[in-house]
């Protein structure tokens, strides 16, 4: 994959950054931790600019996030409730939980989107609940762009400073991604185990 990313950036430049970061949001196996530090290396070679690479990476990520947001908006809260009513345990959600989540998202959704755009493993996923809970599109685009610009700019700058050693960034961040995904898996299993007990208790309480 690294060779394909390198060839794409070398041949397409800023357009390649936009394309790859769009794909990275829709297909997470393509990591921004590889794309943007490589763009930073190209900045160190005067083949891109720091601002240009950051803007291109941000644009591609926002486009990809909009696609996931649109899916969440299309799926919708009511459809999610019906799905939860049939498959609540495996989804670890009940219709009542979804109502609570909607209330929470209305109050804190902006911060949730911004912070998650800075966390490997959650950067793409947060766009779906934002769509499901109908976060206003303008706010979603603004906070997604801001969070993405911080993340993208940091990776480009680090790649620029490391030069030919830019691949170290991916190795440094890989354990963080694994910890986040592992924590999500443990949390999900705990929710599945506790789901029936918690909801039976609430039904009798």
UniProtKB/TrEMBL annotation:
<feature type="transmembrane region" description="Helical">
    <location>
        <begin position="12"/>
        <end position="30"/>
    </location>
</feature>
<keyword id="KW-1003">Cell membrane</keyword>
<keyword id="KW-1133">Transmembrane helix</keyword>
<feature type="transmembrane region" description="Helical">
    <location>
        <begin position="138"/>
        <end position="160"/>
    </location>
</feature>
<keyword id="KW-0812">Transmembrane</keyword>
<dbReference type="InterPro" id="IPR032816">
    <property type="entry name" value="VTT_dom"/>
</dbReference>
<feature type="transmembrane region" description="Helical">
    <location>
        <begin position="50"/>
        <end position="72"/>
    </location>
</feature>
<dbReference type="Pfam" id="PF09335">
    <property type="entry name" value="VTT_dom"/>
</dbReference>
<feature type="transmembrane region" description="Helical">
    <location>
        <begin position="110"/>
        <end position="132"/>
    </location>
</feature>
<feature type="domain" description="VTT">
    <location>
        <begin position="30"/>
        <end position="161"/>
    </location>
</feature>
<protein>
    <submittedName>
        <fullName>Alkaline phosphatase</fullName>
    </submittedName>
</protein>
<dbReference type="GO" id="GO:0005886">
    <property type="term" value="C:plasma membrane"/>
</dbReference>
<dbReference type="InterPro" id="IPR051311">
    <property type="entry name" value="DedA_domain"/>
</dbReference>
<keyword id="KW-0472">Membrane</keyword>
């Amino acid at each position: 994959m690294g060779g394909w990313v390198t060839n794409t950036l070398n041949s397409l430049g800023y357009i390649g950054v936009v394309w790859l970061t769009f794909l990275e949001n829709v297909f997470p196996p393509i990591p921004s931790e590889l794309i943007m530090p490589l763009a930073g290396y190209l900045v160190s070679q005067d083949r891109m600019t720091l601002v240009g690479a950051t803007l291109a990476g941000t644009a591609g990520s926002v486009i990809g996030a909009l696609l996931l947001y649109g899916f969440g908006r299309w799926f919708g809260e009511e459809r999610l409730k019906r799905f939860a009513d049939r498959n609540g345990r495996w989804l670890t959600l009940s219709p009542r939980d979804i109502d609570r989540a909607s209330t929470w998202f209305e109050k804190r959704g902006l911060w949730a989107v911004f912070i998650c755009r800075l966390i490997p493993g959650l950067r793409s996923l947060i766009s779906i609940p934002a769509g499901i809970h109908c976060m206003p599109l303008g706010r979603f685009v603004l906070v997604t762009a801001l969070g993405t610009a911080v993340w993208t700019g940091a990776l480009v700058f680090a790649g620029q400073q490391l030069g030919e050693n830019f691949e170290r960034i991916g190795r440094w961040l890989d354990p963080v991604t694994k910890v986040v995904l592992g924590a999500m898996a443990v949390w999900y299993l705990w929710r599945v185990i506790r789901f029936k007990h918690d909801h039976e208790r609430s039904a009798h309480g």
